Known about the structure:
Blueprint: H1 2-20, E1 45-46, E2 60-61, E3 67-68, E4 70-74, E5 77-85, E6 93-102, E7 107-117, E8 119-130, E9 133-141, E10 147-154, E11 160-169, E12 177-187, H2 211-214, E13 220-221, E14 235-236, E15 242-243, E16 245-249, E17 252-260, E18 268-277, E19 282-292, E20 294-305, E21 308-316, E22 322-329, E23 335-344, E24 352-363, E25 389-390, E26 418-419, E27 428-432, E28 435-441, E29 448-453, E30 463-473, E31 482-487, E32 493-498, E33 522-526, E34 532-539, H3 543-548, E35 550-555, E36 563-575, E37 587-590, E38 595-599, E39 603-605, E40 608-611, E41 620-624, E42 630-632, E43 637-640, E44 644-652, E45 657-665, H4 678-705
Parallel strand pairs: 3-6, 15-18, 38-45
Antiparallel strand pairs: 1-4, 2-6, 4-5, 5-12, 6-11, 7-10, 7-12, 8-9, 8-11, 13-16, 14-18, 16-17, 17-24, 18-23, 19-22, 19-24, 20-21, 20-23, 25-36, 26-29, 27-28, 28-36, 29-35, 30-34, 30-36, 31-32, 31-35, 33-34, 37-40, 39-43, 41-44, 42-43, 44-45
Amino acid sequence: MKKILVVVLTLLFSVFLLNTAKAENSNIISGGDFEGFIPQGETELAFGDPAFSEGVAAGWGSGSWDSYCIAVKDPLDSSNTVLKFSHTATSTWCSFFKFCTIEAGAKYEISLDYLVVGTTDNFGMRFAGAPTLEKTFYGGDSTDGWQHTSWEWETDVDGSYDSIAIWFNTAGNAENVGYVDNIVVKKVGGEAPVTPSVPSVIVSGGDFEGFLEQGDGEQLAFGDPAFGSGVAAGWGSGSWDSYCIAVKDPLNSSNTVLKFSHTATSTWCSFFKFCKLEAGSKYQISLDYLVEGTTDNFGMRFAGSPTLETVFYSGDATDGWQHASWEWETDVDGSYDSIAIWFNTAGNSANVGYVDNIVVTKVVEDQPTEQPTPTPDVENPFDPNKTYYQSPSMTVNGDFEAFAVGTVFSEEQLEGAWGSVNLDNPATIVEENGSKAFKLGKGEKTYSSAFLMLPDTLEVGQLLRLSYDIKLNLTGNGYITVSQCLVGGSNTEYYNIQLKSYDLASGDALFTCGEEALHYPVKVTALENGWYNLTLDFQLTRKDLIQTNSIRWLLTAQNAEDYMLIDNVNLYELSETPYETKVDVTSIEFNDGDSVSLTVGAEKTLAYTINPQDATDKTVTFATSNANVATVDENGKVVAIGKGACTITITAANGVKDEIAILVSEVAQPAPEKPSNGCGGSVIASIFGVLALAGTVVVLRKRKEQ
């Protein structure tokens, strides 16, 4: 405990010095040299989305829309750590982002080192926000070792910026690789802005599921420093105690738990988990524990000043798993950065402890929902005295009926631009009450998500309406995120509908809670069978939302029974004037049936019928399959040219068509006149006719007599 207290006090004193010292021209990018990013025993640290929330890499990440960056050893100096940009199956572009504070109307000096192997046409950087500042600092073949570049930017006085980003175009070639190091962004003059901490869950991974996969499949030994990535990020064991190990539950091999046992290091075994704990707040703590042998001290603390701690068990072996829960209230002037649990083995390897399902929940009293209220000092773009009309839906396949049950979303988007990022558990098409929907539930990864890419025709200032149906089943009582939002630059959430603490059936007011200046009301309508419709009217005000163009649904499921169902997703543009209702042509038919017969040189204008009669666009075109047989003009007039057969096709503007066969024959020639033989010839012909008739009668009689 003394060692932990010394460390905490040292950290607090360091933070105090950093925040009180004059910081003119100091670097606002923490970790820009990437030293300490690679976890002990590892060779690299892959960035991801969301960004790391703890440790030296806090605030650094890679968006799921590009290939991810990796902190690796410098290819020219193995004692140095750098950031690598390379090609993966995700995208030919590779990029990262780093959350930081960038002030409007300020001047900044930017400098960095870069190295290119292969070639690239675009190695660049931006201040992400509106209006975006960006620069391509290199485009060309391999550099001769590391290069240095620097420049200045001045942010817009009305701008808004939340991060930096650097990208590299691999052109889809794995041999094209970029590296950066020593990124420095300095504000010219004045006090250094404080880099904000990145919000984190209170205790992520408290059920330890997925930890074994991060190890060798059978166990994952904790160490110091804590893991910097993966599901175990932020978990570790101090070198002063025996380390903890994630193992299979001794009573249920399908479950993963944390084991406390004796090693040569110490008779005490412990772990720590970095997390965000607020001063002056009340927390509910619960966990399950199991003891084999005996212990006189199985306890937990909020590490910080003043420390909060309790011994939740001491005694002999427990009769199976036990549950413990209690409440703590942090000091109003306190400072806390982690939780820790310890177990005293008394130096006996037969004394073993286990914990599972650690849940730390902040108690929000008299605030049943965490929804913000509308911002009064921002002008609402919607006039309550006006009527707004919605356009036809801009969403394709928002009812999901076009997809087969069992279809899994991925970054290879389905028709309509539906998908899931590879970093999360994907959505799956299911059938619910005779209708198809996408489902998010518990999987191997922490988050489950789905996204919808939006049309690139959106513009700043547009009034939009987002509507969808949702059904939730949540059994967990710990950290749960249930939300839908528009995702902007650097993974920033806008127009977020946060449902983790909102009861859909309550009828309480619900507002968006993203980074937008004005929080908009969300209309909640109860449907049948546990479904609800959510409708949000809002104004698109951010340029980076247009550039990113995605809506994301996110769920962190604690149990196998937890799920989110989404159906009937529609995005509309809103206007003060009604939109013209478009009626498509459903069929078109020639009135003459299957064929028309003409002779060479003849003409005929083909009549046709379009259904429905009130179709918006009745424009048609005609075409012939053989102009040597018959031609047709834009009005449907057919001219027969030569003997034969051909097909005339009529096509509506939306592609609906019909065909008719044209049969062309030669013009019939008149029969030649017989030569005149005078009266004698006629008499002779009459005589021969009489004789022939008489002969026929004779033959018939003979046949009858026979």
